[in-house]
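Lab notes, practical 5.
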Amino acid sequence: MDTMRDRFIATTSRLLDEDPRLALVLAEISAAGFERTQRRHPARVINVGIREQLLIGAGGGIALTGMRPIMHTFASFLVERPFEQVKLDFGHQDTGGVLVSAGASYDWPAGGFTHMSPGDVALLDTLDGWTVHVPGHPDEAEALLRHAAAGDDRVYVRLSLQSNAETRPVTGDRFLTVREGRGGVVIAVGPMLDDVLAATEGLDVTVLYATTVRPFDRTALRAAVGVRADVVIVEPYLEGTSTTATNDALADVPHRVMGLGVARRELRRYGTIDEHLAAQGLDPASLRARISAFLWRRRGR
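Output from the prediction step:
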């Protein structure tokens, strides 16, 4: 199976052939994958080099002309390093564009902490008007990328090497009910779904699958809870990122919320992706223990 980043390159190349409104701005990362596309569209495939602030600034300028820019690099260089440009060149100017990241929270541990970005979604959450997609499979990445490219708003598509084994239908806005139960609700975000399903096997819980986390699907969550709600959110980035959104959605319902994700402490032994998942308590065995302890605590078990 190809990776989400492979699918991004193939899909964006086709989109550039199909839609003259689109432009792609790169900062060296993935540039080799777009060499043929750049030869076909030299004015609409721009590599600014290792200049991430310029990457966003150029995209913002393209957006002001009425075109639709797609900007791409590692998440830490796409959201964190040029955050001022994201805030001003898109938010303040009220223009639209698509940010497409690679690297996720720790997809390339050998690259060190400079190439890790567990706080990207939380950081974008400080800005108004951003849609955030977190696909869990390359097919979902393609669908959400096409959805983003066709729009006019501000969109972040967060790609990862982590992937679920099976693709799910995604619409670009709603949570999907994967499993139904009565003992609580677990929201699995993007590539965390398979581990959540393994962790909750045999537990009486509803599992919701989220590939779009902003805007947050209040309707699906409220439909899944009863008169009292216990909710666990398992996200592949900074723990607690969606806790406030969940609390807001259930403001008039007695509820408890636990956010599971990447901890704030820095892990300095970089290891592998699987080792990071285990160290963060996001592998199936750890998730089962943490989810069970939270959900059953109220029941005195």
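Observations recorded by the TA: DSSP finds twelve helices and twelve strands in the chain. Residues 176-297 form a domain with the Rossmann fold fold (CATH 3.40.50.920).
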